[in-house]
């Protein structure tokens, strides 16, 4: 089954470039394009994409609010944020809104293609740089009480959650805890279910927003 992609960007040349790149890739199909956030929300509902490549800065409705509306509508699409540089001030807000990751517009083509496939599998794409900024952002604001469901996590699940919050990959978590990759995935599934989270990006944001693992 092919990965259905919606490209949302206000620059026609950018959209054309992504369409050219993706059209030649087996297993990936561009099903629609949008030039602003309102159009992205509408076309996500109409075309049911697997992945939305979402620019943040767009007219009428920005990518941040478009992401919120698409996910609030219960759409199963995964949102991959497009940004022109990795210090985009809106990136962490997009992650809080439910985006599954981000890519730079000037990333090599193979990196973008890999990102689309990762997100389409239901995984999240969160770089160490973003993790670091999330940490720095949330250490400067007030914090509500720990989330419901935290006391349902086992000791091992808390260990895994702590390492997710540090930005470690599944392989790195497995090596740290001496457990298999499959076991790591099982623990992550349980953590997300118990805390009612969409993916590990939201887990990272939650951990640092609530300062769950600060010494």
TrEMBL record:
Claim: ATP-binding is one of the keywords in the record: no
Keywords (A to Z) from UniProt: DNA-binding, Phosphoprotein, Transcription, Transcription regulation
Source species: uncultured Thermoleophilia bacterium
GO MF entries: DNA binding
Pfam families in alphabetical order: GerE, Response_reg
Residue numbers carrying 4-aspartylphosphate: 55
Protein name: Two-component transcriptional response regulator, LuxR family
Domain HTH luxR-type, residue spans: 146-211
Domain of life from the UniProt record: Bacteria
Any single GO BP term: phosphorelay signal transduction system
